[in-house]
Amino acid sequence: MTKLINFQTDPSTYRHWKVGYDGPVATVTxxxxxxxxxxxxxxxxxxxxxxxxxxELYDITQRMRFEHPEVKVVVMxxxxxxxxxxxxxIRMLGGASHAHKVxxxxxxxxxxxxxxxxxxxxxxxxxxxVKGACAGGGYELALACNHIMLTDDSSSSVALxxxxxxxxxxxxxxxxxxxxxxxxxxxxxxxxxxxEEGIRGQRAKEWRLVDEVIPNSKFxxxxxxRAQEFAAASAKPDVxxxxxxxxxxxKIDEAAVHYSLVEVEIDRAGHKATxxxxxxxxxxxxxxxxxxxxxxxxxxxxxARELDDAILHLRLNEREEGxxxxxxxxxxxxxxxxxxxxxxxxxxxxxNEILKYWKRVLKRIDMTSRSLVALVEHGSCFxxxxxxxxxxxxxxxxxxxxxxxxxxxxxxxxxxxSNFGTYPMANDLSRLATRFLGEPEAVEEARGKVGExxxxxxxxxxxLVTYILDDIDWDDEIRIFIEERASxxxxxxxxxEANLRFAGPETMETRIFGRLTAWQNWIFNRPxxxxxxxxxxxxxxxxxxxxxxERV
Amino acid sequence: xxxxxxxxxxxxxPNNVGxxxxxxxxxxLEKWHPGYINWWNDLIPDKFQQSLVYLRTAVxxxxxxxxxxxxxxxxxxxxxxxxxxQVEGRTIPCGEHAGEPAWQEVPGEYRxxxxxxxVIQGDTEPASVEQQRFLAITAPSLYDMxxxxxxxxxxxxxxxxxxxxxxxxxxxxxxxxxxxxxxxSSGSEEAPRMLGAFNEETPDWLSFFxxxxxxxxxxxxxxxxxxxSGFDPLSRTCRFMLTEEAHHxxxxxxxxxxxxxxxxxxxxxxxIDDPYDTDRIRALGVIDLPLIQxxxxxxxxxxxxxxxxxxxxxxxxxxxxxxxxxxxxHRLDDDHKLTNDTYTVWDFEDGQVVRKEVPAxxxxxxxxxxxxxxxxxxxxxxxxxxxxxxGIDFELKLxxxxxxxxxxxxxxxxFDPDGTLLSGADYDAGEKGWLPTHAxxxxxxxxxxxxxEPGKYAGWIAPPKVGIDNKPGDFEYVKLAMA
Lengths: 552, 483
Known about the structure:
A: 23 helices
């Protein structure tokens, strides 16, 4: 699987989804093109999906938020008879490399989190209208919706058949959402997750697996009715229209990806990618009306889209670059001024969407299994939302004092009010609160410095960076750190970093990712699933998996 | 010990499975029974329920004694639970357990797979009765009406057989599935039958004959493969069902044959040699041969769809598990495991219909379908003999497997009956010559008149050569109740 995976798409090129808009209600119809798989060697039968199908769904969720703020309810349904969605394509999983599977599952769950949070974040409530078989990843899609409606035609069911059928887990949120979100009793969950055919009819409701079970003849009408009810009850303000998400300005070279505000430099020999973010070219707009007029060209939105794409590109297409270095260059005050406009108008729909989008992009950085380092150089603009990157990375290095022959402004960090809760991590704490879990007073001390450019010694004293280095040490220390990092086992790094990044309380989100990373990925590596005689490899051959019965 | 050769009538349900000593299953079945009777009573128009029908009832599984004929009202028909006698020392015929003793209880690891197969099979049995519920009103003779009812009650009994297995071997889940078999209903918006072909009404008698010839033959092939099951009670159940299924095939083959015979006869009497002179032929009140070909095209291809995808994981799993064998598995000379074998299937690559080798395990459906096609070709040959004997230049043919398919590799492309890939325009232009049109349907419908005088037949169909149970030509097969 060496072909380039492109995360950019638009409705004119969708192969697997249809989206209909009718005032406050949108309908998202899954109708997967069997022959539209991202790779050769499998057909996407029965509305099964691969990464390509998910990329389109992600695009839909983004456009729903930015292009269609008038939408208050989104109905997800199937365009096929007798099947809602059969889940991730098994042959694709069987043929994919481990790294591809892991990245695929991660992106899939990030997309699910996006529409799952749409109700709280944007007042867009997702309804799963389930007709036909809804199995595995198909039920996980429904689980991520805010309301599940199931038809009672005596054959439609919801199911998580991974364990009995494939010897893997419904791990992309399935198990966790059943217990933590749907709050299904654990013994019933045990039964449910052990039977291939799933649960249908009233029992699905009794067991809390769905919210409503509806007679088949009334199903479509009831779904439509429910959508209207939810829309009428929505507190989301009416918005006339959205903005357009136009294609990104992006050029991919052999060793670089160029965007308008983001540069990605690939050093394959050094297993390193450097992401440089540029500050705004001009002053912040005076009002939200101007932001709306700028649309997707508004600095913070353009930057978020480009950074989001760059991270996804590195995750899937540049898998040996184990270290990602974040840099920035630009005017920190202007960055802050742009963000301040959004924060001051947080109840404006577009300001809210941009802030929430940054929350997701920053979480995507948290969740990226590469060693992350930030370099706070002279001339950098780590202000407010961009300063969050400093608290997302594993280590940060900051230039101290003047460097010979460098006439850029001295390196500073500019905190903003947003650093204290606007962009919570998956654990629902701010990055600073997570960073100072044992020293809550340090968070308050930092809060006292909002709006003050903090030079190296002060940033160091406040604990905002790992090391500050002067002209004499900078080059060597950075080089040694990078070389050392590149020499470690990538697996050990991934494990160590994931353990250290998410201190503090567990949430459903942290549990899903944690369990996905630990359990699902472990099972994906075990012979019982993916060995030559494993169930996943043998699926479709008619021959059962041959299990090593030793419990580990 | 119960006597396997003598059906026990000491309980409400005739059976040879020792039901009276199996309190748990007896209780479940007796609880299910009222629902079944309600289903039956709601289904068939009351006038026919009250009529006396000359039906055969299975009183024993002995080859000589399983068909006992007498007049009976259909609601009083004794739907029993009858299994073919147990074969001593029977082993699992195929898959990874081949050669091990056949299972007398459901193995836990295959419980769901087996249950699903039984439920799907069970779902088709009442479905066909539902599809055919209005046909008696236009029966072309009492003989045909009786055959319809015979097919109906036996489909009902086959439902009983599947329900018995669900009750006996699948616990609470099995009881729920058995209830749902009565809840689903053919063509229902609320809860349709599981397979698409079983949700279409059977609109006329030619459709009924085509259905019993082609679609019941699919049922026969499915039963043949389940008769090879390593789960012995399922195998025994299906083996006995097959003896009854043969009659359904007979009704279909002779029904189409008698229609052809009558058409040929009327053409001859009126000096028509050209089978395509359809206006004149239709004006004489018989069904032209090209229309019979169109009906054949439709029913054959719908039935092919019932075999599922050419390459199927479920079928592979079922074979390898030993739950479902191939047609005549016990007569095949190979290792019965197929782990290293291949089989040739149709595929569609680069705009071409091609034959392709795939692992034999995954091609179990295709193999069964090929066996089906060979089996179905036999009757077509006999129909052609009737036409030939009448001296008319016309030959009925099974269309190419690519034609008119909704499932499988050909499903999203258009082909003519010879298997040539066509453009949309070419297909539209040819379609009315290949498949029955609404006008064809109207014409057939116009011939459907009920004939209830013993020994008389509607004008579009010839009388049978021999009566049922060797009864004379004017035998009153159905004593109709006065409505």
